[in-house]
Amino acid sequence: GMEKINFSGGEPFLQNRGEFVGELVQFCKQELKLPSVSIVSNGRRNTERGVEKGGSEYLDILAVSCDSFDEDVNVLIGRGQGKKNHVENLHKLRQWCREYGVAFKINSVINRFNVEEDMNEQIKALNPVRWKVFQCLLIEGENSGEDALREAEKFVISDEAFEQFLDRHKDVSCLVPESNQKMRDSYLILDEYMRFLNCRNGRKEPSKSILDVGVEAAIKFSGFDEKMFLKRGGKYVWSKADMKLDW
């Protein structure tokens, strides 16, 4: 019954300059025959070679994270790329997607530092198939709490502030909003040990590995909310063969 797989990280294009994830994408299309295969990247390390390796025939969607079109804000948030300009790189990736026949998507996390920004003009110019707009979410042990890898409390915004951002961009047809409520339980996430991660208690609690107990047993502890998945628009036209896009 599996129809879609999404590779995210970390940064999927790090290993072998994108060739490894390209091989995974090819396997998912050729061997598993999945209708949709996508990658989420931060746009820093994925080379043209990596996009080409997973593109054309096999990769349906490349989603690139972009939280701001103001380079100073990107640096403040942690999206700075040193000598590279994140926004210029985004346009370069957009062009590669056109050249190699990959649907282009943008993911933005709305937080304290970009919540007042107007992104209408830039998003319409890039013309992604989807613009996923997330409300900054705290996950215990990941970006919140004593044992967290990073601290995100200073990025948190209110539900009201998030709604105001959405209202400012209501005329962007590709916008797909995801509040904290919609996001927390509506994803099936597998970690590198092939364990489902349950986020219902505000932290990522792993199931047993599907390699040890199988999918049917492990998925019971995933915390997945199918109704919320459908409510947030999780089911959409996700195979580029059905998108009828003009590359």
Automatic annotation (TrEMBL):
InterPro entries: Aldolase_TIM, RSAD2, RSAD2/Viperin_antiviral, rSAM, rSAM_sf. GO terms for cellular component: endoplasmic reticulum membrane; lipid droplet; mitochondrion. The keyword Transferase does not apply. Residues 1-175 form the Radical SAM core domain. Its cofactor is [4Fe-4S] cluster. One of its GO terms (biological process) is defense response to virus. Keywords: 4Fe-4S, Antiviral defense, Iron, Iron-sulfur, Metal-binding, S-adenosyl-L-methionine. GO terms for molecular function: 4 iron, 4 sulfur cluster binding; catalytic activity; metal ion binding. NCBIfam families: viperin, viperin_w_prok. This is Radical S-adenosyl methionine domain-containing protein 2.
